[in-house]
Amino acid sequence: MSKNAHLTLQGRATISAGISQGLPFSKIGAELGKDPGTISKEVKLHRTAIETGSYGRGFNPCIHRNDCEKTYVCKNCYSNGRKCRFCKECIKHCEDFEEDECPRLSKPPYVCNGCKDRQKCTLRKFVYSPVRADNAYKTTLSENRKGFAIDPEELERINQIISPLVKNGQSIHHICMSNSDELMCSEKTLYNLLNAGMFDADKMDCPRIVRMRPRKKEPNIKIDRNCYKGRTYADFQQFMSDNPDVPFVQIDSVIGRKGGKVLLTVFFPTCNFLLAFLRDHNTARSVLNVFNDLYTLLGRETYCRLFPVILTDRGSEISDPVPIEKDKDGELRSLVFYCNPSAPYQKGGIEVAHELVRRILPKGTSFDNLQQEDIDLMLSHINSYKREKLNSRSANQLFSFLYGDDILLKLNIREIEPNDIVLAPKLLKK
Fold first, then answer.
1. How far apart, in whole angstroms, are the C-alpha atoms of residue 61 and residue 50?
2. Which of 39, 133, 249, 375 is the most buried (most CB within 10 A)?
């Protein structure tokens, strides 16, 4: 293996095998033609934490686990009165919990691969998997090669300069030349951000851009490479495990004619209730505007009750989570989590709900002639549809039971008589 080449799956498998055999990093590095520090960094960066116990004992990393005499720490104990030290759930509820860490993990090899005591250990373990490490590396490499990073505060600062001048008819080139000291970014960057819909001004406000034939592929703009940090699907699962009573919604986009209007859909898994909002362009700013409008319409208390947790895919229109999570005063209002790449099944509820949307708006249908009132009518019919899995009730009925009729009125959703429901394109024919 050449000295400067990136590690491959085969190289990572060699590292895993070497650790299991108890070889030092220096010997593993010599076999791969790598510095021992490179092997050390690779293992620490891509090791994975697992929560498993030992034979006859569940996962319990509490420092008091060997002499704890507590029972019934959980409100609903399913252990039949056994001591809590034998239960993996008590650590989530016990106020005296203090995690114990294996001292071997603070020094090479930093993982439990090859550890002789692994099968009888109940502490949190770290393992190095070559397949997981290689997949994580490829994901990071792909994301780092996409677009560029710019934090929300910097984007808003540039927006305040660019948008008023573009709306006054000025070209990006003129603005860039006249305000180079304030903008501190290239003309190409400004065009990319404008084309991606990151400014209040739209590219249609630029006469020359309107006349030019668009390129076949729009630039893939990423607001912040670190937007997934702490917001992965694994983080979502952990949060929901720690907070099982907190509801969540799934969001996605439904595309009409390419380049035309699109829908932002919001799905409530607890009651199969679906919302949709018409947007002129599939941009991050248009998504933010939807949530800001809902926040204003519903008020903080109701909004936080409906949208405490948001699960979405990794589309570019949801690549700026911070403004969605916080209101204009910086107060937290929601938490945003992302599904894994190419894993639509992780938000399967909304994918199934889209089948009802497509009965009325088949693929390839243009949304350009529709208004939000048309979308509200469509949703009223969809949410009034009785389903067997809802015990022959409609999503409207369940949503009303959980949240109240007044919220439905604010969202312009009404109950349609069963025999008047239309789930076909003729519903919105004009």
1. 12
2. 39
In the block, residue with structure tokens 């509200």: 376
* Nearest alpha carbon to residue 253 among 286, 227, 295, 217: 286
Task: Output the CA torsion sign for 33, 35, 37, 38.
Answer: negative
Q: How is residue 337 written in tokens?
A: 């989590």
DSSP for 349-364, please give it.
HHHHHHHHHHHHS-TT
| Cα separation values, 195 from 198, 225, 235, 323, Å | 8, 19, 32, 20
Give the pLDDT confidence of 219-234 residue by residue, as tens digits. Answer: 555 555 567 888 999 9
Confidence at residue 2, expressed as pLDDT on a 0 to 100 scale: 45
Collapsed DSSP state (helix, strand, coil) of residue 396: helix
Task: For residue 336, list its beta bridge partners.
Answer: 310
pLDDT, tens digit (0-9, with 9 covering 90-100), for 173-200 = 888 888 888 888 888 888 888 887 788 8
**What does the pLDDT read at residue 68?**
79
**Residue numbers in the chain where pLDDT is lower than 50:** 1-4
Closest CA to 357 of 421, 263, 290: 263
Angle at which helix 9-20 crosses helix 130-144, to 10 degrees, equals 140
